[in-house]
Design brief:
mainly beta; elongated; five-stranded mixed β-sheet; 28 strands
């Protein structure tokens, strides 16, 4: 999705300025009309994985629409040994196929048939990927964000540059604004103990929006060490309780590294004077039946390295703001008032302090709405991930 949005922004916002003799003039980008309706290919070929590919098309400069997904294409992964893995299109538009084991001595490529044209990526042997040695979270000052750093294991070939791409997934624990172990029973006009009406906590998940790439050229022994992948704001809810990330590492070719670097630059600059048009990005996909250009790069990997890591707030300086109690308190109420809070206000009982058996004593209650008590209403799942009980980081 990040690629499609970046390409769309680059394509639709190619407007710059130039300065001459102290005057600022509007720059009209000369974008050829044939650069619209280009096929965009996302995905990579990888062993022992569900391989996913998505096909879209670029739009004219002035279009307000997002690129549309190509439907009904015939897409397959092919090998120079005659092997073929056919994909099927899923409900969300991906073309997917399961590949068990790729042969390290065979070259593989992506074959696409759509709209009367045939496209293929350049055949390439699958690259071996080192495992990940370490992923850690580092906070350099109490006021700084938490940087997530990665170190791959020593390279298989320390005599030449190594290139990697990384993607990641995140999971973090969230708690409700308030908790309650009781509810007001309108039939009996009394509080009832029930600790299970709302989950005590929940878990949110997200997938990193960008593909990150790195080169070992500037590292001693061609061994990348402690390179920053991303950071987490010290005041982000992800760091309030417990955080886990799963990093995927894939060895890539120099050509794929250059493509991803150029794509990142294009997406960051969003139409600067020196930003290349999408069609000018390097690619290893070509149309065999015409001279149509294609956007995208399909890599090929023998395996991926994965690393599951955990971050805990007590190890960092976390900025968790104080929130004033936003529950609704009734300092002197009766059962009739509680009945109205449930039936008219739609609120839930949180506190029941009944001192009416004492001289001058009153009934004090506190109430909250369901969105303050139920993390599921804030996008969290109440199903604990199977890895959440792990105490140590794990390299796969």
């Amino acid at each position: 999705m990040k690629l499609r949005k970046s390409l769309y922004l680059v394509f639709c916002l190619m407007v710059g300025v130039c300065t001459l003799s102290g005057c600022i003039e509007e720059y009209e980008a000369d974008i050829p009309s044939e650069d619209s309706d280009l096929l965009v290919v996302e995905g990579s070929i990888c062993s022992s994985k569900m391989n996913k590919f998505i096909l879209t098309r670029t739009l004219p400069v002035n279009s307000s629409l997002m690129p549309t997904i190509v439907q009904g294409a015939r897409v397959s992964v092919r090998g120079t040994d005659g092997s073929e893995y056919m994909t099927t299109q899923t409900f969300n538009g991906y073309y997917a196929c399961q590949i068990e084991t790729l042969n390290p001595d065979v070259e593989y490529y992506l074959h696409i048939e759509t709209d009367g044209e045939i496209y293929e990526s350049e055949p390439q042997k699958p690259l071996r990927t080192e495992k990940i040695a370490e992923v850690s979270g580092v906070q350099y000052t109490p006021e700084s964000n938490i940087d997530v750093l990665i170190t791959p294991e020593a390279p298989f070939n320390p005599d030449k540059p190594n290139y990697y791409s990384w993607t990641y997934e995140e999971t973090w624990e969230v708690h409700p604004d308030y908790t309650t172990v009781i509810y007001f029973d309108i039939k009996t006009s009394s509080p009832v103990y029930d600790p299970y009406q709302f989950p005590a906590c929940g878990w949110k998940s997200a997938t990193g929006s960008t593909i990150l790439v790195g080169s070992s050229v500037s590292y001693e022994g061609q061994h990348i060490r402690r390179v920053k992948l991303y950071d987490i704001d010290r005041g982000d809810e992800r760091m309030y309780f417990k955080y886990s990330g799963l990093v995927h590492q894939r060895a890539i070719s120099k050509a794929e590294y250059e493509y991803e670097s150029a794509r990142h630059q294009a997406g960051s600059e969003m139409g600067g004077l020196f930003t290349p048009l999408p069609s000018a990005l390097p690619t290893n996909i070509h149309c065999l039946t015409s001279n149509k250009r294609v956007i995208g790069f399909v890599g090929c990997s023998l395996n991926t390295g994965e690393y599951r890591f955990f971050l805990k707030p007590m190890d960092y300086s976390i900025d968790r703001p104080y929130h004033k109690d936003a529950r609704k308190w009734l300092d002197d109420c009766d059962e009739a008032a509680c009945y109205r809070m449930v039936t008219k206000e739609g609120m839930y009982l949180c506190e029941w302090k009944d001192e009416r058996d004492r001289p001058g004593g009153t009934l004090q209650t506190a109430w909250a709405y369901d969105f303050q008590l139920d993390v599921r209403l804030k996008g969290a799942s109440d199903v604990e991930p199977d890895f959440w009980s792990l105490d140590e980081n794990v390299s796969y």
